[in-house]
Design a protein that fits this description.
The chain is of the alpha/beta class. It is 36% helix and 29% strand. It has helices at 47-54, 72-75, 77-83, 100-108, 119-129, 134-137, 146-159, 176-193, 204-208; strands at residues 3-16, 19-32, 36-40, 62-67, 70-71, 85-88, 164-168, 196-200, 212-217, 220-223. Helix 4 packs across helix 5 (119-129), helix 5 packs across helix 7 (146-159) and helix 7 (146-159) packs parallel to helix 8 (176-193). It binds adenosine-5'-diphosphate and magnesium ion.
Length: 224
């Protein structure tokens, strides 16, 4: 399978009480197109830091990230974030004063990727595909349940037509039954939509449903 994302010799450290703490050490890894990965590791091992770096929200002290063979520095972080990736957060991070469909439409306005002309129809269809029917799509998102808000966030992550979707503990606020439903959706995104999904989790239920489990340990990623 084709490689979509490659990390090369990523280093990340910070100063804590005069001591340097290195969280990521010469970390290299290659992610393939259309696969669903879970990244595991104990609390404090650097999972969120790693996700922030590969999502272009934070920068490493050194190392390179290649998207489809192109160095992200060359592509530019702005374009990488707008056109290559989406993020699904544990706390959903939807715009609370907008409806579900408005949240999806907003994401469509924040990319340069080619999108279908009838955006509103596409937005409603995306939401309904993930279980948000029309009447719910027109509600303010803070009137929806946690599981429903996460479905909206997933629909939003697809709206900009990117190939890489990252999620940090996306089921951390959900019960086990809803967790399974949400993870089944991520699986569908990779297998039916061809997206590459990288989910950080400490849930065994989640990791057992993924194609590839990867462990973050001693600053490096290890294939399990
Ligand atoms: N810039 C920073 N300054 C201080 N502490 C940091 C910084 N970046 C990360 N950390 C610390 O590094 C550790 C790893 O963080 P994190 O990536 O959130 O781990 P995880 O998501 O695996 O629990 C945590 O203890 C966090 O507080
Ligand atoms: Mg974390």
């Amino acid at each position: 399978m084709a490689e979509i994302l490659r990390l090369e010799n990523i280093n990340y450290s910070y100063i804590d009480g005069g001591y340097e703490r290195q969280i990521l050490k010469d970390l290299s890894y290659s992610f393939e197109e259309g696969r669903f990965y879970t990244v595991l590791g104990p609390s404090g091992s650097g999972k969120t830091t790693l996700l922030s770096i590969i999502a272009g929200l934070d920068t490493a002290n050194s190392g390179e990230i290649y998207f489809n063979g192109q160095n992200v520095k060359e592509l530019g972080l702005y374009r990488y974030r707008r056109n290559a990736i989406s993020i699904v957060f544990q706390a959903y991070n939807l715009i609370s004063y907008l409806t579900a469909v408005e949240n999806v439409l907003l994401a469509m306005s924040e990319t340069d990727n080619k999108l279908p002309a009838d955006r509103k129809t596409v937005a409603y269809n995306l939401l309904s595909r993930f279980g948000i029917v029309r009447s719910k799509a027109d509600r303010m998102v803070n009137q929806l349940s946690g599981g429903e808000q996460q479905r909206v966030a997933i629909a939003r992550s697809l709206a900009s037509n990117v190939n890489l979707i990252f999620a940090d503990e996306p089921t951390g606020n959900l019960d086990t039954a809803t967790e399974k439903e949400i993870i089944a959706i991520f699986k569908e995104l990779s297998h039916d939509f061809g997206k590459t999904i990288i989910v950080v989790t400490h849930s065994d239920t989640v990791s057992q449903m993924s194609d590839q489990r990867v462990l973050l340990k001693d600053g490096k990623l290890h294939t399990l």
